[in-house]
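Support request from a user on the community tier.

User writes: "When I paste my structure tokens into the form, the page sometimes reloads and wipes my input. The last time it worked, I copied everything first. Here is what I submitted, just in case something in the input itself triggers the reload:"
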């Protein structure tokens, strides 16, 4: 296991390159709805840009064969 702030693109790439995984489970997010109301910018940064950083690191990886991306049931379509 590695604990990295997914908002730090370089650290995400570094950990991925060191670990050389074949399968990645991306579950990282700020998923607390009330917290997202209190700090929407941080929630956006973590969930959107953080996921973009993970996806970019995965795109550049030559070891990854499969990725499982998980979201929340709290996503609204209103």
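"...and here is what came back when it finally went through:"
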């Amino acid at each position: 296991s590695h604990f990295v702030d997914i908002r730090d693109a370089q650290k995400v790439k570094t950990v991925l390159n060191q670990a050389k995984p074949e399968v990645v489970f991306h579950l990282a997010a700020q998923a607390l709805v009330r917290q997202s109301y209190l700090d929407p910018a941080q929630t956006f940064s973590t969930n959107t840009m953080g996921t973009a950083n993970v996806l970019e690191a995965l795109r550049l990886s030559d070891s990854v064969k499969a990725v499982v991306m998980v979201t929340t049931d709290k996503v609204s379509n209103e």
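Agent notes: The reload is a front-end session timeout and is unrelated to the input. The CA atoms of residues 26 and 69 lie 5 Å apart. The helical segments are 9-19, 33-38, 40-60. Escalated to web team.
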